[in-house]
Design brief:
The protein is 29% helix and 21% strand. With 574 residues, it is of the alpha+beta class.
Length: 574
């Protein structure tokens, strides 16, 4: 084992290579002792324009001085680690700046956004050691080492960032405990939803509107209306730290969110959609919590579908194309939405979230007039309205739908919530009266029980990350795009991905699944479950042995969605 060098040795090396070619930076790789922490330089970039160098800081328990109660449970540790990552990012922004060519001088960490996600950027170990993984752009002029600037960066600025963000003494006790307790409360609340027959809970006082469509922070405005539950749907819980909380419970079954345009229907659905994750203190949605297996479903024109049994929703197509194992390189809105629902069932969904605005109209409803004009014999689509109750009866899968124009759904709803100026009202009784007073005369087209083959087996060779001479080439373009080998993977319709680091982890997990479990004998669901079990047991580092800091927790539903959208995917027997 190589002996750890002192930080002064790092300084001397940087001064010695000043002015040499950029590859001389390779000499600084290794581990160094600093007062109060250890700095590991794991990977040194090849030139100023390449991916920046990867570093780790390990702050020993004595220096970190984290009270044990802050990481006594996984919930608390994740809440605190996300807070520390945000603090590190804030301090890094003070010192990060252009110091030469390319990315010279950059200090960056993959801090989480509004959602609290287990991640590899900052981790709290069982003994209280804090580990931070970040990147640094080593300074250069052209392709010449700027050793003196690198010395200031690595021996002055980086230590300042570490010392002012990671040790407990950098923060108040109250602030640290808030992040631990808030995350533990959210997990405790989610664990109790099922026993109360709920799939989601929205706390009184929650702030649901966001700053903008591209800014997930809470809207700050005098006109923001805090959430207040209607009495008939109000539920109460006692949480470990927040104590008694009240709010609106959304029951299992079929729930409609109705109301006029711009009154908050989609805002409520979006909050429920994001409630599968916890939120940081101050977000406004700290106690907006959903069961973990709710899946947002939408139409997705042009997506690839591989061997999905959509026959329960769409019968045989013209020219004799069977839908029992439906494949398409360019699915329509209705076939893509049918496939997404069956794929969600396959991955173990407990509930479906659908917004009328992003759904295929002909998939949602076929009204009485259209039934009279186009006989069922000429219409292969069985609309969702005629399957939604069967989904709950057969599979225990609930549905929450935003409905603005399809009043026929009142006939199948268990609960109807009307949004009026961002205030919810329980109008279930009135909705049932309207349904009785204004019968639609449409004929249910569902027929028999839902029968779908949910045991697809991926063909190993079809999950191919190779490109050119590289056996594995996976690049995360942004939060919704992965270059997986030669295939471009579009995840723009997978709305419950909330961070780039999740997408990066999903890309790595696809390759891990390919290498480890996809052998042609396991079903897609079985392979993904084994991948998630490995992550649960060994952490996200099981996906990438390089100990990177850019991986974040994801659900099996997003991993399944990525695999299902891979255009090279083939199904055994398909």
């Amino acid at each position: 084992m190589t002996e750890m060098a002192s930080h002064e040795a790092l300084r001397q090396t940087l001064l010695r290579i000043d002015g040499r070619g950029y590859k001389a930076y390779k000499e600084i790789g290794g581990t160094y002792r600093f007062p109060g922490f250890t700095l590991a330089i794991d990977s040194v970039q090849s030139d100023p324009f390449a991916s920046p160098s990867r570093l780790r800081a390990l702050v020993a328990p004595g220096t970190a001085a984290l009270p044990e109660r802050l990481f006594a449970s996984d919930s608390r540790a994740v809440g605190v680690s996300c807070f520390l990552a945000k603090a590190f990012a804030g301090q890094a922004s003070r010192f990060s700046g252009r110091r030469g060519t390319g990315r010279s001088g950059e200090i960056r960490i993959e801090a989480p956004g509004q959602q609290v996600l287990a991640n590899t950027a900052v981790q709290i170990h069982a003994d209280g050691t804090i580990e931070a993984r970040f990147t640094v752009g080593l300074p250069a002029q052209g392709r010449r080492v700027l050793g003196r600037q690198a010395s200031r960066l690595l021996l002055e600025d980086v230590p300042e960032v570490i010392e002012s963000s990671l040790p407990a003494g950098s923060h108040s006790d109250e602030e640290l405990w808030l992040h631990a307790a808030s995350n533990e409360d959210a997990d405790a609340l989610r664990a109790r939803l099922a026993e109360h027959g709920l799939i989601a809970f929205v706390a009184d006082g929650a702030i649901l509107p966001r700053a903008s469509g591209v800014d997930d922070r809470p809207l700050r405005s005098d006109g923001v209306v805090p959430f207040s539950a209607p009495d008939s749907l109000r539920r109460s819980f006692s949480l470990p730290h927040a104590g008694a909380v009240t709010g609106m419970g959304i029951p299992a079954g079929v729930t409609l969110i109705v109301g006029g345009g711009y009154h908050g229907k989609s805002t409520l659905l979006r909050a429920v959609e994001r409630g599968v994750y916890n939120h940081r203190p101050g977000d406004g949605r700290e106690l907006v919590v959903s069961v973990s297996d709710l899946v947002k479903i939408r139409a997705e024109d042009g997506r690839s579908v591989s061997g999905v049994d959509i026959s329960a929703f769409i019968g045989d197509l013209p020219l004799g194309q069977s839908t029992g194992s439906f494949s398409s390189r360019n699915a329509s809105g209705s076939t893509s939405q049918a496939a997404a629902i069956v794929e969600a069932l396959e991955a173990g969904a407990e509930g479906l979230l659908i917004d009328e605005d992003t759904a295929a109209t002909n998939f949602l409803i076929r009204d009485a007039r259209m039934q009279a004009l186009v006989p069922k014999a000429h219409e292969p689509i069985t609309p969702f309205i005629d399957r939604v109750r069967q989904l709950h009866a057969q599979f225990g899968v609930s549905a929450v739908l935003v409905i603005g124009g399809s009043g026929d759904y009142l006939d199948v709803a268990d609960t109807v919530i009307a949004m009026e100026s961002f205030r919810p009202r329980d109008v279930t009784a009135r909705a049932h009266e309207v349904a009785a007073d204004y019968p639609t005369a449409r004929v249910a087209e569902g027929g028999g029980p839902i029968e779908a083959d949910l045991r697809r087996r991926p063909r190993p060779r079809s999950i191919d990350p190779s490109k050119g001479r590289r056996q594995v080439s996976i690049k995360t373009r942004n939060a919704h795009a992965i270059q997986f080998g030669a295939a471009s993977l579009d995840l723009s319709a997978v709305e419950q991905i909330v961070h780039w680091a999740q997408t990066r982890a999903i890309g790595a997990a696809l390759d891990y699944a390919r290498r480890t479990y996809v052998d042609g004998s396991l079903t897609l669901a079985e392979a993904l479950e084994l991948v998630l079990a490995d992550i649960e047991r060994e952490g996200l580092d099981v996906l990438d042995s390089r100990r990177t800091g850019d991986l974040a927790q994801f659900r099996r539903h997003e991993l399944a969605a990525a695999l299902n959208r891979l255009r090279t995917l083939e199904i055994e027997g398909g």
